[in-house]
Each structure stands twice: as C-alpha cells, then as structure tokens.
Amino acid sequence: MFYGGYVNQVESNIEYSEDGAVTNVALKIHQFRERNIGIIENNVLHVRKSLKKHLHVKTNSLALNQKLIDSGKFDIVNIVIDKKYNVSIPVQTIKDRGKLIEYKNSGFEPQYSIPFELFHGAEKIPNSQFNLFKEAKNEN
C-alpha cells in the first residue's frame, strides 16, 4: 500500500490452528487475505516451495519469515522443492548462519535469507543453482 510515495511495512500475523497431532500454519496479511504456509508435525515445519519462484539467484538463497522461524514452535524446517525433492535445515542453523533482511518500506516482513548449500539434500537436486555453482567451480 502506498502512502506519501512509500510502501508501508506489511503487518501480518502468523496463525496456528491445531488439528490433532498436526498444527496448520497460515500467514494472515489482513482481514481478507490469508496464505497457508505449511504444517508443523513432530517438531518439524513442513513447507513447499518452487526453485523457480523462491530461489534468490544472485545470493543462491531461500528466504523464510523471521517471525515464523523465531516462534519456537519447531526445531527443523523441511521444504519440498518442486513437489519432488526434500531439503531440510535446523532452525538453529537458520538463526546462526542465515542473514536477517529487513525490507523497510518495501511491503515485505523481515526474512532470514539462507544460503541454499546449508540445506541438507540440496546437492541432490539436478539443475539447481546450487549444483550449477558447484559445477562452475569444478571446471576452473
């Protein structure tokens, strides 16, 4: 939303709804818009992402919502990439080695930017940026 030439910081809430042993996680951006993020099961946050849409090519990283990561509701993040590859990372690694990005006046909430090579299983994804960088290094 623009006001005086600046984009306002997004104010949103993360909502958790219990469903037996599973907790559904959604990002409520405002009263009319809610986006499902994933589920928490056995202390693991499970989400889905597309490399094409979510991989930041310049830094070869994925971004995860700071408020969600800092919630203390899980210890591991498991991401299904392109509906067929699994990568995972401990929350402590995200906090220790991820870079916190504050998107002031851009319309996005703070995110942890995590280098793709820190995710367990990233090396098994064919044609990923991760493997392209590795291949380029090996050719020199």
Describe the structure.
There is one protein chain. This protein has a domain of 97 residues: Trna Endonuclease, Chain: A, domain 1 (3-Layer(aba) Sandwich), CATH 3.40.1350. The N terminus is likely disordered. The protein is globular and about 35 Å long. The chain has four helices and eleven strands, in the order ββββββαβαββαββα.
Structural class: alpha+beta
Q: Widest sheet: strand order?
A: 3-4-5-6-8-9
CATH topology of one domain: Trna Endonuclease, Chain: A, domain 1
Radius of gyration: 16 Å
Question: How do the helices and strands follow one another from N- to C-terminus?
Answer: EEEEEEHEHEEHEEH
Which class of one domain in CATH terms?
A: Alpha Beta
Shape: globular
Strand content: 35-45%
CATH architecture annotation name of one domain: 3-Layer(aba) Sandwich
How many strands, what sense, and barrel or not for the largest sheet? 6 strands, mixed
Q: What is the helix tally?
A: 4
Q: Unreliable runs, pLDDT <50, ≥5 residues?
A: 1-9
Write the SSE topology.
Layout: E1 2-3, E2 6-7, E3 13-19, E4 22-30, E5 33-41, E6 44-49, H1 51-54, E7 61-65, H2 66-69, E8 76-81, E9 85-90, H3 91-97, E10 99-101, E11 111-115, H4 129-139
Parallel strand pairs: 6-8
Antiparallel strand pairs: 1-2, 3-4, 4-5, 5-6, 7-11, 8-9, 10-11
Briefly say what this structure is.
With 140 residues, this protein is of the alpha+beta class. Helix content is 19%, strand content 43%. A hairpin with a 2-residue loop joins β1 and β2.
